[in-house]
Amino acid sequence: MTRLLAVRYFNACNFDRAAQSKFGVVVCCTGVFSGYRASVVKSLLKEYIEQTWMGKPCTFGDDRHLTSMFLKLGYKVVYQKTAIAHTYAPTSLKTWLKQQLRWNRSFWRENILMSKWMFKRSKVLSTFILIDSLLPFIYICFGLIPFFMLISSFGWIVIPPYIFAISIMAYIRNSKYWRRVNYYLIPMYAFLYSLLLLPIYIYALFTTDKTSWLTR
After folding, report:
1. What is the pTM of this model?
2. Burial, 152: exposed, middle or buried (Cβ in 10 Å; 0-12, 13-18, 19+)?
3. Three-state SS for 177?
4. Distance CA 174, CA 176 (A)
């Protein structure tokens, strides 16, 4: 499990955040290792600590929220690829799914909050947020196609090419890193995303008011 997540973490930082960094609009400075301008943090401290959502105190997603506060004020947010940090990663599927549910609840919460000002802040930032928000629904629509084909007269004929297509796309998307971080495991994450994470994305959208940490 941790080897699989190493692939995802490496990609999230060196692909997703690196792309956002080119425009100074990194959406989330990881809670594991980030640096902020102290004077700004002090000015935002009360608002940051006392954040509420749907009438309840926020108990997670603090790294994403603090990043959003800086972006809203117009500050440049970038990614430093030479920074090195060690973190604990889930070692079981159950713990990982709970972590993802928590992360996705804050993902939707902050995206909704950002929608009030992101278009004025940056067109690039707005594009990143809109793509991240819409992609799960697009994936679900495409995922329904082989499902309906499966229960139709085509039967199981559609499954092998569908699995092959997902694997090839996963390898192509991550081809830059073929010598690193367990490259051969990449399709496994793609299948977990399709089968398990997409339902969690949707469930999290309708349960953003929940405040349980789940893994503690």
Report:
1. 0.89
2. exposed
3. helix
4. 5
